[in-house]
Amino acid sequence: MRHAVPRTVSVHRDHVGWLAAAAVFLLALALRLHGLGDKPYWLDEVTTLRRSALALVPLVRDSLAFHHLPLFFLVESPIERFGLGPFAMRLPAALFGALACALLVPIGRDASGRAPGLSAGLSVGLAAGLLAALSPFQVQYAQEARSYTLVLCFILIGIWGVVRLVRAPSGERSGWLLYAIGTALALDTLSVALFWFAAAQLCAALIAATRVGPGGRRWFVRRWLPVQALVLLVYLPFVFTMIVLTRGRMGSGLDWVRPASVHSVSTILQSVYLLRRSSLIAFRVFPGPLDIGGLPWPGLCVLALVVLGVLLRRRETAVQVLLITALALPVGIALCSLHSSLWMPRYLMWSGPILFLLAGLGVSSLSARARPPALALIAVLGLVNLWPYYATETKPLWNEAAAFLRDNRLPGDLLLVDDPASVEMMNIQLDPRAVLAGRIPAGGFAPGDWTGDVDTALAAQRAGRRVWAVHGKVGQNDSTTLGALLREAAPLGETAERRRIGLDITLLRFAPAAPRGSLGKAAP
């Protein structure tokens, strides 16, 4: 016979749970605010700057015309009025990222509702929240002026709703509301939420199959289907508008994604799931302070906890729901990539916290005495593993390249660039407000200051001007290598100066050509 839990005990549990969620939120927020404005903007963030500065109707139209949903840019639009500095523009993403970590606490507690004792249920959400708060990848994307943490929050709200539906009595409405609101807003934020929508249908089929008696399968299905219709009613108008504005070429919005390779897939999996630091632009991972023998032991320990938790509690429907949700995204992206590659770290972002929930199940399987030390160990080792991230070059240093050229070029110097976007990247670092207003920043680069044509650069060199060749990563699928630029610039002769700016930018200076018949050397 099941005994009712006294109301005072239930209220106490709620208070403890919300206090735990608040503590996770504050920790996650502090880690995301630290160094929030230190790293330079990169190309995708410049899109946010430009779009957020538009008026309402042009903002929505521009978003949909470029295959983006407008919700996040509407959130950013008021921020733009107070300044275009990286800290201010990234602040919403940091807040949403911290909130996502906190949401894992109630989700984990509800998912483990049948675990014995308060500490076991709460330890699932606490472990997941700590892992997400301390994940270098999650911190990295929470320090981006982009929509990924916002869609993560909404998807977690939707998942929370589905988890509550597993054990909800027929009259309980919170699960339905959480699922509908979270899923509809997630779809209106980023289309990658479609993978969650598909996973939710599989979860619903599983829940319906396990419900018996009053409020059973038929009751559940009769309520589930109208909710899906409502969610789609909110989302599909945006899809139809995108189809019209892109003239039926919505698929062209993914033509920038590089083809999948063993290296790129391995890099993405390590950063999303194995707590490794990575570069946003280059598919590059950095060794961690706790690596031994080149292996990411913190991430491998998380996987061990996942295996332990799933094996011990695999028969529970809520656990099966989390497992379906965690697998749906990487499996779905792999299947879609057979047609067009979707292997980008941002697209797998929301599955990481679900994996952390499964790891939390492993922590909850420990004895009551072992759980607090395990949570403390996660916090300490997670912080040690995360801390080098703040000093890691995760984005190309276009701010340093712009400052160097501003201080070292002479009047008449010409830039030879292999990607015109590199000029915009340097100008935006010097003065984003001037760039958005259509002006050239002080010390910036006007159209006559650069070219992408070697013949033009050669003519300038022969006219007595110095030429700077600029190579660097701008987007995530840059096609021109430094070697290709060197071969193209070979007619300019030997380089007078070669300067490396961080990991991804190289500046080459070519001296003016010596006047014909002159026995002297060219000017430096």
From TrEMBL:
InterPro entries: LipidA_mod_glycosyltrf_83. It is a multi-pass membrane protein. GO terms for molecular function: glycosyltransferase activity. Its main location: membrane. Its EC number is 2.4.-.-. It comes from the Bacteria. It is found in: Cell membrane. The chain crosses the membrane at residues 15-33, 87-105, 117-135, 147-166, 178-207, 227-245, 295-312, 319-341, 347-366, 373-390. Keywords: Cell membrane, Glycosyltransferase, Membrane, Transferase, Transmembrane, Transmembrane helix. PANTHER family: MANNOSYLTRANSFERASE YKCB-RELATED (PTHR33908), MEMBRANE PROTEIN (PTHR33908:SF11). This is Glycosyltransferase family 39 protein.
